[in-house]
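tmp note - Large ribosomal subunit protein uL4
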Amino acid sequence: MEAKVLDTKGKATSDKVTLSDSIYAIEPNDHAIYLDVKQYLANQRQGTHKSKERADISGSTRKIKKQKGTGTARAGSIKSPIFRGGGRAFGPRPRNYRFKLNTKLKRVARRSALSLKAKEESIYVLDGLRFDTPKTKEFISVLTALKLENEKVLFVVGNDSDNAYKAAKNLKNTKVVSADSLNTYDVLNARKVVIAKDAVDVIEKILN
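out:
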């Protein structure tokens, strides 16, 4: 499929790029998308949650009342979870939420996400996204020219766009990623995907 190349003023240039059908026009695999997004979100979790169990509580170890004859249930420790100030029963413990996915499946998921966006006509190809200085004002002018200032937008750029990263850092609904770190979650989380012309070949090289 062919796509028009836009400049930073939002106007179509005479240039066109061919987007590979094997990436932008496949039948989306919903389960692959689900697994890849699940892994991405799991990898964001720190897993440092911890509550104090009875072994972690400071308190007396004496038996708080005699075993029999009180008319109530037997109790051996003030640190028991049934008492106020006692340890928590079955509380969260530090753990690693990461899990493995095959590279082939992750490629299918990314191709499926891009195909969904292409089907919705939500993919734009930009001639370039290079700034001499990392100014947010200049980035906003690009968004305005593309009529995307009120949208959640993902910009996919080449590897030499440090100023673009910095310029978009303070923009709430805009994210800039390099083509080699493109992931399924970011594609689906955005309403529109803007791909720099120099990033198209990088994406095809990785996902084909």
